[in-house]
Amino acid sequence: MKEFFRQRLNLHQKNMQRYLKYVFNDHFALTMTFLVGGLGLYYSNILKTLPKGFIWGTPIVLVIWLVALQIGQFASLAKPADAVFLLPKEKQMRDYLTQAFKYSCYLPFGVLLLIGGATMPLVVLSTGKNFSSFAFFLVILWCLKFSQLQIQRMALFQDMEKAVKNAFVLWWIISLATLSVGLFIYPLIGVLVAFLQAYLFHNLCWQKMQAPLDWDKMITTEQHRLYRLYRFINLFTDVPEITAQIKRRKYLDGILSKITFNQKNTYLYLYARRFIRGTEFSGLYLRLLGLGSILLVFITERWFALGVGVLFIYLIGFQLLPLYHQFQYMTSAQLYPVAEQQKLSALQTLLRMALLVVALIFSVISSLVVASWMDRGIIVLSFFVIAVLFVELYVPYRLKKNQ
Fold it and tell me: What is the pLDDT of residues 329-352, one digit of tens each?
C-alpha cells in the first residue's frame, strides 16, 4: 500500500503542477512580492512604535497561532472508486493512511514555520524572550498540528462522531493551555506538554483505533478538500473540476435593465448577465473587493494604502479579462452579424463600471483612515485614474497580445 500511495501521490502532484504554473505566474509573483514586502515594512514600522513589554502582544500572537493551526487538512487522496476496488484491502489501509498522514503534515508544518518566524519579533518585544526560543515554539506548534491531524484521520472511521467532537474540544483546551504556558511561563515546559499531548492523541486516535473505515466519509471529505483547492486555483485559470453555477439574482435586474435589447449591445448583454448571474466572476470580484477593503481599513500610511488599492484594482480587472472569451464558441454569436470590435467595447464598458465601483469603495475607506486632506486627494485621484487607464489602455493591449 505504500507503493500504491506513492503512485497516487505522484499523479496528484503532476495534476497540481499543471495548474500551479498558472497560479504562480509573473503577475502573482509580482503581486506577492509587493504585498509581502509592503506588509513586512508596515509590520516593522509598527513594531518600532511599540514599547518593550507590550501587554497585548502575547495575546495577539496566541490568537494568530491558534488560527494558523487551522491551516491544512488531512489529505487521503481517496477516489470514489476506492469504495469498490480497495474494500478487500481494508486491513492494509492503515499503511496507506500512515503515508497519507505524513504527506498531510508537509504543508501545515511549512506554513507554521513561516507564521511562527514572522510573529517572533512581536514575541520577543512582548515577552522579552530571545529569538533562540523560536525552536521551542515551532516544536510546540508542530506537535499541536500533529495532534489535530490525528483527530481528522480518526474522523474517517465509522461511529467516531462523538469521539471526534470530544477530541476536538480536548485539543482546543490543550492547545490554548500549551501555547499559554510556552508564551507566559517558559517555552521548554510548553514543549514537554506538547510532546505529551501528541503522544496521547496518537495513542488514542490511531494506535487503539479498531473501528472499520468509513469509506463514504473518507471519499466525501477528500472530494470536499480537493474542491476547495480547485476553487482557489480557479481564481487564476479554468479548472475542469469546477463548474460555475448560475443564480437568478432578481434583485439585480434593475442593473441589467439599463442595457437596451438591440444589436449594438449584443456582447454587453451577454457579458453583463454572465458576470452578474454566474458565480465564477461575481464571486471572484466580491472576494477581491472584500479582501482589499479589509486591508485598507488597517492601513493609515498614504503610499502603502495607495499601493495596495492600485494592486487590487489591477488584480480585479485582470481576473475579469477571461470574460472576453466566454462566448467565442457560441454558434449563434458567430452567425449573428455582430462586429468583432463590439466584444472589446462591451468588455471595456463592463470593466469600466466594475472598476469604478471598486475605486469608489476603496476611496471611501481610505478617506476615513488616512489623516490629511492632501493624502485623501492623492489616493482618491490615483484610484480612479488607475481604473480608467486599466480599462482604456491595458485591456486593449492585453487582449491584442493574447490573440
Answer: 777 777 777 787 888 899 999 999
